[in-house]
Amino acid sequence: MLDPERARRLACVALETSRAEETEVSVSQCEEELNRFTADHPVQNLVRRLARVDVRVRVDGREGKASTGTPTEDAVRTTVARALEVARHMPAAPEDPIPLPSAQDGYALRRRDPLSPDPEHTADSVARLTAAARDAGCTAAGIAAAENDLRLIANSRGLEVWDLDTRARMSLSVFNGAGAGWSSHIAATREGLEAEAVAATAVGKALDSRDPVAIEPGAYTVVLEPSAVASLLLFASYKGFGAQQVEEGSSFLVGRIGDTVADERISIADDVHHPMAIGHVFDGEGVPRTSVPLITDGVARGVVHDRRTAQRMGCRSTGHALPQPNPIGPLPTNLVLSPGGAASDDLIRDVDKGILVTECHYTNMVEPTRLTLTGMTRNGTFLIEKGQVSRPIKNMRFTQSLVEALQRVSGLGGDTKLCSALFGGFTVVPSLRVDGFHFTSQTGF
What is the dihedral sign for C-alpha 368, 374, 380, 382? Predict the structure, then answer.
């Protein structure tokens, strides 16, 4: 596992075996260490190693794909044969396929040192998390994990790229009667994780959330902490910033490139090269990922492309293809929302009456062209009165257009944080203050 030479050898076996006009091979190797725990004892401790080889072939205008989870040369040869057989039974493409990309220069590859198992470091981190909860008289549960992810793409036109990405993460949920708190942290290394800060935040929110009261639904000024911002912004990634969504007419950017679509404070890019970013620096076709301005100072600047949408629109791929073939089209997976200069307390200080939201839960899309979303708050929802957090409130359901919310931004925090995204990928976001955010109903908890 995690051996680029072994991955290269498997790719070479596939390319040497294939009789297709064009062949693409993707080899991925992943090692994951996962620890689940409560405040009293470990619940699960595992190390999982996964490998996958995908082979895509083109023969006489037909395309076939096959995969294997057995990383041996014999299994790869069998997978090539299956891909060729699939292609033989597929209908011919209605248009000439785009040739596979050839070898390219200028890659800024990310080859981090792999994270070795470190049970002492993990045990120490878990001990600090659980001790903080016990000392506060709370119950808790959490996760500590680390992952190495090696990916190689090669094809019959001479392209061969690989990189190794690493990530470590921890999260802690803390409960104190009816109060609940949560916090998490993601970094490229275990040493980059801040267990004390995670514990202090989660425990503090749980203690502050005791005895919540219900308030009437309606439009409120909200201060969304970074995790809440990330859970909303990911829908713009999935259904807004991709070229195919614009082509299909389902994106809020249809006919609006060059127009003001958000408050002038808002600048969003997709940038895997950001210092806080995590992810592979080439896409599912082996094309380098480039930094793409999506919204700059509130003005829509562009969308991300794969090679297919780029050909149709007369431009170059930005390196945002998913593994092909794929009906979804290109997607940004490393959104970066530029921070403002305000401290979190400053965002709250200017609010006469509003709501502080720690996290959003069960968020789903209602309507894509306005990015109308619905979901609930959780793990720390508080009333803001006269510039101060006054008391905990029961969770609320919201139904809100993200497009309208971005137009009503009244403050950006400077507390940039790396957050994971539900559909894959990561976002780098600060806290956000939005006026007129619509809460449609109460919950019972």
Answer: positive
